[in-house]
Design a protein that fits this description.
Helix content is about 75%, strand content about 5%. It is mainly α and about 325 residues long. Among the domains are: about 35 residues, no CATH class; about 160 residues. The protein has a three-stranded antiparallel sheet, covered by helices on one side. Helix 2 runs antiparallel to helix 4 and helix 3 runs antiparallel to helix 4. The two termini are about 25 Å apart. About 5% of the residues are buried.
Length: about 325
């Protein structure tokens, strides 16, 4: 039994390679990484997160956080501070008011000249009491002398009494004048005394006001000094805040330079593109080899077996189709 050629042997197309997985990328320069994590819903997703800092980096970052927190608190407190609210201005006002009020009351007492009339009346009454006592004695002595001489009703007695009355009137007028002069002199001396006392009291009051002025001026200077210190403290705190903020900002800026997600996607695409291209090249090579084998098979001459098989086939066909009345003919007709 001889068999014919069954055709060229063709290569099988290779199975497509599995898809490359996304790689986890870690960047130690930026301190970040992009990885695949399983979320709460059980599904994977990609995250870009920080990697733990190195000990020296963590120490520097903590120092920056402490600087920002402490200096920010100091800046808030320093901005709330108001030195002017600490200076009591009321004591100085009270000192001025007390001085003015006491001075006016003192001046009013000194300028009260109504006492001079009382002094004049008192001195005049004292003077008249003495004069009346003297003239009463003289008048009794005159009556006794006139009575003893029997001239109590004579013209001389009348003239003597009138003269004594004139002397009494002149003495009273002179006494009144002296009383007024004495009262004025007393008032003048009292005024000098009161004025001196007023000046002494006024010096004391002025001293109290001056002390309050010095105290207020001292507090004003202290306020200015506190304000200078406050502004200086704010500048220093601002400088420290900027240092701490710069440390934190440096860490953030470094992390913001992260490209691990882009690098992961780029690597994923590159690997799959290279793999797919390699597979396409393999498939193209297999197809080219198979096409070449088929073409070579078509171009080769028929073998002896193929020719014999062809003749046998032709005879059988003729047999089946030559006599339709026979079983073979009937079968040939049926199938052909």
């Amino acid at each position: 039994m001889c068999g014919g050629n069954r055709g060229p042997k063709l290569e099988r197309v290779p199975t497509p390679p599995p898809e490359k997985e996304l790689m986890d990328f870690i960047n130690h320069i930026t301190g970040t990484k992009t990885v695949t994590v399983i979320g709460p819903n059980g599904k994977p997703h990609r995250e870009t997160i920080r990697i733990p800092r190195k000990p020296e980096e963590e120490e520097r970052y903590k120092f920056g956080e402490q600087l920002v927190a402490s200096t920010l608190k100091n800046l808030v407190e320093l901005n709330k501070y108001d030195p002017q609210s600490l200076i009591p201005f009321q004591p100085l006002l009270d000192a001025y008011y007390s001085m003015n009020n006491d001075s006016l009351m003192d001046i009013g007492k000194i300028a009260g000249m109504d006492k001079i009339d009382q002094d004049i009346n008192d001195l005049r009454q004292s003077q008249r009491m003495l004069l009346d006592e003297q003239f009463d004695r003289r008048e009794r002595a005159l009556h006794e002398r006139l009575a003893q001489t029997g001239r109590g009703t004579s013209s001389y007695a009348i003239e003597a009494r009138n003269d004594l009355a004139r002397q009494r009137g002149l003495a009273n007028a002179e006494g009144d004048m002296r009383a007024r002069e004495a009262a004025i002199d007393l008032t003048s001396k009292r005024l000098n005394t009161d004025t001196n006392a007023f000046n002494l009291r006024q010096q004391g009051r002025a001293g109290s006001v001056h002390n309050e002025e010095l105290n207020y001026q001292f507090q004003k200077e202290d306020e200015q000094d506190q304000e200078r210190r406050r502004l200086q403290a704010m500048q220093e705190a601002q400088g420290l805040y900027n240092v701490g903020s710069g440390i934190l900002q440096y860490d953030d800026n470094r992390a913001m330079q992260d490209r691990t997600a882009d690098q992961s996607l780029a690597t994923y695409a590159t690997q799959n593109n290279v793999q797919n291209q390699r597979y396409a090249n393999q498939v193209a090579g297999v197809n080219a080899n198979n096409n070449a084998a088929i073409q070579e098979y078509k171009n080769r001459p028929p073998s002896f077996g193929e020719m014999a098989a062809g003749l046998v086939g032709q005879g059988a066909m003729a047999m089946f189709t030559a006599r339709p009345d026979t079983m073979a003919g009937r079968l040939g007709k049926k199938f052909f």
